[in-house]
Write a structure and sequence with these properties.
By secondary structure, the chain is mainly alpha-helical. Helices cover about 75% and strands about 0% of the residues.
Amino acid sequence: MKKQNYSVFSYLFRNILYLLPVAIFPAILLAISLNPYHELNLLFQHLNDTLTAENFSIYVRDIFSPVRFGDKWIVLAIGVVGFAFAESWLATNIYRHMKVGEHDFLPLKRAFSVFPMMLVYFLVFFTLLELCGLVTMGISYFLKSFANLGVAVGVTIALYVLLESLCWLLFGLAMLCFPIMFCENYSLTSALSYSIRIMLQHKRFLVLLAFSYPVTRGLLSLVAAVCPAPVSMVLFTVFYAFLIMLLPITAFKMYFESMGMERKDVKNWLFA
């Protein structure tokens, strides 16, 4: 007799038919509206000699500030709302599955009940990411006045990646906040404090989380940069779909482990 694997990826692939249909729509909207080439755009423009001291500020503004969304801001807004609702749907279903071993195929009532909290949660996170871009833009303007153009480009890219990683580190510290509030009925401040105490015991995971998103997105951007636009779109849709599915799976896996709770979704395999 052998138990199924407890890992996040094992859970994902065992249950992907229940998870992917919920994640795919917001993933498409995010792939359409989010610019995945922030750092690459600046680097390519520098390497192609299209970047000058005169247009540096314009390029940086169009890469790192909210004006880059243009008319796509409506698609992005719908995508963020869809992201939050998909996470609400998946979180309530994953919790039920891990707790009692059964999927809830249409957890609309429970998903809508936690949706406002989830929306605020992710709006704060997306706002932090946008602030990273604005801070990067401000420091880039400052660098331009006295630094070599190549130095300004390098520092700008490194700074943005560092700030983005810091945001994901903060997200990791708060990762168990929602499961604790949802399952234990803790207040926001108590759940956040509890989440931070637990996650500080998983420093290796926090470092991995902090750098895995920008590194994976950067590598994917390199591949997508040499692919036709439709292929790029598909690649980033898959990327965001996996991100949407992996976040609640990881959060509830760590919650169950931290609380010492038995997971009912893990079955025994019998071998003759």
